[in-house]
Amino acid sequence: MSPRDNQSRPGLRARRRKNSHLRVTRISKFRGSSASPRGIYLLPNLVTSSGLFCGVFAIAQTLEGYYFTAAFGIIAAQFFDGLDGRIARMTNTTSRFGVEYDSLCDLVSFGVAPAVLVYKWALVPWGVWGWLATALFVCCAAVRLARFNVMVDRVDRGYFLGLPVPAAAALLVGCVFLYNYLGHSSLPDKRVALLLLTYALAVLMVSTVPYPSFKQINLNGAQPLWVLVLAIVALQLIVARYDVVIFTLAATYAASGPVMWGMRRIRGRDLDLFEMVDSPDFEVGDDEDEDHGSARG
Q: What is the reported pTM?
């Protein structure tokens, strides 16, 4: 373009500078202001890495045929998954890096590990339909985690948008525990049940069905005595019959979303429980960094 053309269009350079500024601003918002260019916080990311190790351990045990041990590896990953965010908030070491790293670890521990476990344990006889079910589960888990990261500040913090990935993994693991405890004679054929369940969980993860997040529950302050007694009884049940308790809790939570959605639809109430912004562009907010990814999509 000649200098004369530039003079005939005096607003061209100004518009280009303006658009360049907007692009830089969007990139800066996406990267987050809490990320440190000099290093990472060690303690919370070590806890997150421990959960990843448990997920890889579960995959290794599955490939060796130790399905029950693999299920325990995924449960151990659940423990570290709930611990890293709390440690980050307590030590004031939240970061954008921690959020992204946590999501990648969750995809392995709660996406790939339970999918491989279910495939080797129950879905191999289905052939192509079996591995397609597990592949769909992993893909939907990845989509669910990515959607959580970009929409965490756009929804009501009292709810999750779709079934959380750790909850879906817990239900698959609970099925392994339940079949091991009750035996196959008193339960439906695991090959049919797990195939249908895997597809159903994949759909629920990427759905817009609301699930309670329980973020409003505050146990830091003083509590009534009956809360302590109830917690002790719950711990006793978990220790005595962890297999039944894990399956029951995971199945109840997975069913709570569709039940809540159906009840609101029958009553004719507004189903839009989420406070969406009008902008079509996704922007990451500060709430995500505060949780260090602990809410996990």
A: 0.76
